[in-house]
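Module 6 notes. Inverse folding takes a fixed backbone as the condition and produces residue identities as the prediction. Think of it as a translation problem where the source language is geometry and the target language is the twenty amino acids. Below is one complete input and output pair. Work through it position by position during the lab.
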């Protein structure tokens, strides 16, 4: 039976395998060497979520658009569309033993634990959770990475192990990458609830994805779309990542550290005379690094600031995009979102779009026409 199956052309085998749910696919991969190779080739799109609780996982699935409310009900089976695999892993009580061990001294002395000490414990356990999430990610990427064209990862953050797997196994073939680390509905886990509101800490981990220094020869280079939520990537790392991926047309960033004027000016080819280190610019004076971008979403990023206008009538002139001049350089842009960027004036954006940019879809930072339209929900009712 199996030898008949293996005698089929590879395309036919892959087509048949694409109907299997993930577990059956993995089981098939264990049958023989040939079936192992086939099952790896079959896995082209992978979404992985690693959380502490099933409910955390469900809500994150909904928010990321991985599932519709109807699908969440039958969540246990992880409904897959053909060739699209979604894997959810629940890791409750990570290193609970360590956590308890850390508690012991204080229970002995019967003294209330100092706030800073328990905070330290908390961030240690949080780091352990992140390591654990990345270990799962690494395992899957090491096995399936070379055949993946689309990969999404939902967790608390990426660490060096996960980044290394990503940048070595998915280097040239991966087209679509999403890293989602913002899950503000999780308020009862190891993550401090307030940490969801800000980008993750800056980290050298991102250097692996751009392949610099000791990581030369690694890094992503074939990305067409990149989604990052609550990423600690710095403006410079972000520049390098975009520069290394010239086919990038979709860039969606939410709560990202790197979304700052220096990155955006570079992206739109705006030169600031004051800059000393403009080696990135010297390559080609009139090249606009972001000119291929069709979709650019910058959400909940507060470091983009529109300059205030001395006279309201300034708005009418061609300086109404002051602070956002970089948008002019992005000639192919069809969708721009500045949703929830609180230091940008919606009025300026609206005016600039009408008079200068003329981009098909523009999402304003907030709705300014009808300030009464915000719906307030009493937290007690939730
Ligand atoms: C943007 O606004 C926030 C408040 O939402 C403020 O704390 C911050 O300093 C502002 N950032 C800049 C660069 O002006
Ligand atoms: C921006 O301009 C385009 C083209 O003029 C228009 O179709 C679109 O509705 C505008 N968007 C907003 C939010 O004003």
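Target side of the pair, the amino acids:
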């Amino acid at each position: 039976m199996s030898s008949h199956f293996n005698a089929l052309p590879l395309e036919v085998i892959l087509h048949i395998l694409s109907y299997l749910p993930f577990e059956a696919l993995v089981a098939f991969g264990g049958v023989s060497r040939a079936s192992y190779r086939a099952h790896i080739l079959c896995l082209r799109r992978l979404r992985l979520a690693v959380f502490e609780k099933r409910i955390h996982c469900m809500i994150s699935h909904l928010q990321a658009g991985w599932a519709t409310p109807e699908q969440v009900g039958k969540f246990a089976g992880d409904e897959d569309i053909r060739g699209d695999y979604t894997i959810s892993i629940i890791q409750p009580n990570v290193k609970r033993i360590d956590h308890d061990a850390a508690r012991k001294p204080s229970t002995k002395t019967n003294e209330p634990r100092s706030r800073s000490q328990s905070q330290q414990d908390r961030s240690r356990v949080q780091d352990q959770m992140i390591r654990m999430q990345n270990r799962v990610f690494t395992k899957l990427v090491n096995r399936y990475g070379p055949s993946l064209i689309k990969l999404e990862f939902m967790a608390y953050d990426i660490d060096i192990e996960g980044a290394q797997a990503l940048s070595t196994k998915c280097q040239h073939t991966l087209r679509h990458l999403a890293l989602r680390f913002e899950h503000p509905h999780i308020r009862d886990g190891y993550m401090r609830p307030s940490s969801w509101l800000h980008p993750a800490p800056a980290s050298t981990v991102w250097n692996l994805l751009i392949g610099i220094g000791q990581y030369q020869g690694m890094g992503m280079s074939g990305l067409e779309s990149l989604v990052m939520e609550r990423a600690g990537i710095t403006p410079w790392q972000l520049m390098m990542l975009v520069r290394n991926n010239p086919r990038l047309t979709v860039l969606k960033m939410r709560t990202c550290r790197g979304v700052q004027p220096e990155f955006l000016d570079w992206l739109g080819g705006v030169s600031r005379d004051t800059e000393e280190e403009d080696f990135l610019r010297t390559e080609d004076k009139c090249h606009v690094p972001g000119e291929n971008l069709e979709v650019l979403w910058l959400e909940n990023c507060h470091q983009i600031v529109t300059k205030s206008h001395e006279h309201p009538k300034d708005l009418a002139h061609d300086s109404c995009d002051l602070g956002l001049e970089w948008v002019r350089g992005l000639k192919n842009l069809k969708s721009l979102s500045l949703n929830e960027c609180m230091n940008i004036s919606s009025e300026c954006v609206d005016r600039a779009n009408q008079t200068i940019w003329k981009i098909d879809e523009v999402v304003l930072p907030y709705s300014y026409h009808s300030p009464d339209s915000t719906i307030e929900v009493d937290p007690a009712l939730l």
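Reference fact for the lab report: The longest helix spans residues 115-144.
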